[in-house]
Amino acid sequence: MRALMVADTADFGVVRIICDDPGFAQSALEGAGYGVTVTDVIAVVVPDRPGGLADVLEVLGAAEINVEYAYCFVKPSGEGAIDVFRVEEPERAGRILADAGLRVLTQEEVRLAG
Hints:
Blueprint: E1 3-8, E2 13-18, H1 22-31, E3 42-46, H2 52-62, E4 67-74, E5 81-87, H3 90-99, E6 103-105, H4 107-112
């Protein structure tokens, strides 16, 4: 597991997990009786400094890409943070961020980030 986010309401909870093997995690959770939905997200390396997230959001905003939710984790090496975004068009958003000079990670790169 690379990152975890938990939100709850009066009726249910939502757990979002970034992990190294989504298929295995889905099978294990469903096998334990949990409802599971796998969602495409994008992961972007952001300098771990004030304003790093704002730089990414400005690029997305200029392209009129709305962020549904986001969370981040810091790379253990200390060289930066990985910000994870759920957007309507992840492939388009990834291209736009890459064109702006930001590093968008593949699933394998996220797996190795720990």
